[in-house]
Amino acid sequence: MTEAADPLTEDHVLVEVTVPAPADIVWTALRDPQKIKQWFGWDADTLKDEIDFIFITHAEADEAARSVTFVGVPDRYEVEARGESSLVRVVRSAPAGDWSDVFDGMIEGWISFTWQLAFAFARHPGETRRTLFFSGPPRQNRLARSLLGLDAAPAAGEPWSGPLGPETTAAGEVWFTARHQIGVTVDAWGDGLLVVVDQPPTEAKPHGSAMLTLTTYGLSDADFADVQARWQAWWDDRFETVAPGC
């Protein structure tokens, strides 16, 4: 007997992107920890354990449907074939209602990571990334994208150029936009990617909070260290450093 669906819940598509690779190949990027490492999260001592916990030991995969559900979380990844490309989406089964004003850290993470997955396939298939990550509230009442110079960025898919944080001049493309975040490519980082998440103000955080993930490719150790030093100094002048969720 088929169990009846819960009438009080419905599927919400949290993020959906087109990935320029066949579905079988994209599916392996959701199942192979070494491939997941090239798009999920950011470089950290805990990344390997996080990937194992989320995608391996606490995940239930349906190979035929190319769907992976996360144990204890009402979310799932789906990969749908579209010719030589794929649609990748994250779906949440949750109560019906208007989610347009909701800020949910897990949702924002899925949005960031799924666009990072699409970027890795579209621009750097098979390449190794190196990342920097910053998280915490701004010291003044301004969104991170404003402090970075991205508050007037064009629409997704359009080129952009101008100052970017500590970079006096930078250029690239607007990779994606969402209600609480923006992603822009950065030519100078080996065609890298900057993802900016702005959390709205709360009683506990009257200026809100921000997360920046800088993804780089092909930089020498010296160039990567230079980017890290300049961005760390820029961040420390404008933000407090607090771990996500704190």
What does the main sheet amount to?
6 strands, antiparallel
Q: Which percent band covers the strand fraction?
A: 35-45%
Structural class: alpha+beta
Q: What is the overall pLDDT average? A: 93
Number of distinct helices: 6
CATH architecture of the largest domain: 2-Layer Sandwich
Contiguous runs where pLDDT drops below 50 for at least 5 residues: none
* Cα end-to-end separation: 45 Å
User: What is the CATH class designation of the largest domain?
Assistant: Alpha Beta
Radius of gyration from the CA trace?
18 Å
Keywords, separated by commas or semicolons:
246 residues; alpha+beta; Alpha-D-Glucose-1,6-Bisphosphate, Chain A, domain 4; 6-stranded antiparallel beta sheet; 6 helices; 11 strands
Give an overview of the whole structure.
- The strands form 2 sheets. The chain has a 6-stranded antiparallel sheet with strand order 6-11-10-9-8-7, with helices on both faces.
- The longest helix is centred in the middle third of the chain and has 19 residues.
- Helix content is 26%, strand content 35%.
- The mean pLDDT is 93.
- It is globular, with a radius of gyration of 18 Å.
- By secondary structure, it is α+β, with helices and mostly antiparallel strands.
- It has 2 domains: 117 residues, 2-Layer Sandwich (Alpha-D-Glucose-1,6-Bisphosphate, Chain A, domain 4), CATH 3.30.530; 109 residues, Alpha-D-Glucose-1,6-Bisphosphate, Chain A, domain 4 (2-Layer Sandwich), CATH 3.30.530.
- The chain has 6 helices and 11 strands.
